[in-house]
Write a structure and sequence with these properties.
There is one protein chain. By secondary structure, the protein is an alpha+beta fold. Strands 1-3-2 form a three-stranded antiparallel sheet. The longest helix has 9 residues. The protein starts with a strand and ends in a 23-residue tail after the last helix.
Length: 73
């Protein structure tokens, strides 16, 4: 397993660390808390991010993939 620090995860996703902290606070991104340390599994994080693709290349061939937590309108 390849564990990332919050800084490494933010760089991988190309987001601000503060954005990532907010997502971990609300449990909307997969992570593990080890005491005061946050860690992210690289493969799990990439799979999570892939759920948000909007170019039709998601599994199942959906033209507009939505994250599982959202309710379709």
């Amino acid at each position: 397993m390849d564990w990332l620090t919050i800084q490494e995860a933010a760089e991988l996703l190309r987001v601000k660390v503060s954005w990532l902290y907010e997502r971990t606070r609300t449990n909307s991104i997969p992570h593990m808390k080890l005491g005061k340390y946050l860690r992210f599994d690289r493969a799990e994080l990439i799979a999570w991010a892939a759920e948000f693709r909007r170019d039709g290349s998601t599994a199942g061939g959906a033209a507009s993939a939505r994250p599982p937590s959202r309710i379709p309108r």
